[in-house]
Specification:
single chain; about 140 residues; mainly alpha; Cytochrome Bc1 Complex, Chain D, domain 2; DNA polymerase, domain 1; 2 domains; two-stranded parallel ribbon; 2 strands; about 60% helix; disordered N terminus
């Protein structure tokens, strides 16, 4: 009974969206919600993490693992604005297409961003501040 209540709690706390079912299926047996969501990794970071979990015995299909990576990246990840396309920035950080194009255009003209704060040169600072936990400049 406790397991069912824990599972219901985890499911309720995760944002809805594509990949949620796969996260619950693949990750829930070994991890609680805090373990899953505490790290804001880039997509590459989530891929490495999922690969480690597979090496340790996580079970699922390649499609399920990809869905897990995409879900975690979108909801609990960071997007490297020095490498991402405008489309990836829109999908991962939820900036508008116009904002994402401005980020990429500035990067192409001036070189890589050194800090998430540098994005305020092209986007309103309140928007950048609100999304700072999802921005990487690695």
């Amino acid at each position: 009974m406790l397991f069912i209540l824990l599972l219901a709690s985890i499911a309720q706390d995760l944002p809805d969206g594509p990949g949620k079912a796969e996260v619950l299926k693949v990750c829930r047996d070994c991890h609680d919600l805090d373990t899953i969501t505490v790290e804001n990794r880039t997509k590459d970071g989530w891929k490495k993490t999922v690969a480690k979990m597979v090496d340790r015995g996580a079970e699922g299909t390649d499609e399920e693992f990809e869905a897990v990576v995409n879900y975690l990246t979108k909801n609990f990840g960071r997007i490297n604005v020095n490498k991402a396309s405008a489309e990836e920035i829109v999908a991962g950080i939820d900036f508008s297409a116009k904002e994402a194009e401005a980020i990429v255009g500035y990067r192409e003209k001036n070189g890589p961003y050194k800090s998430w704060r540098d994005l305020t040169k092209v986007i309103d600072s309140s928007r950048v501040e609100a999304k700072k936990n999802h921005i990487a400049v690695e």
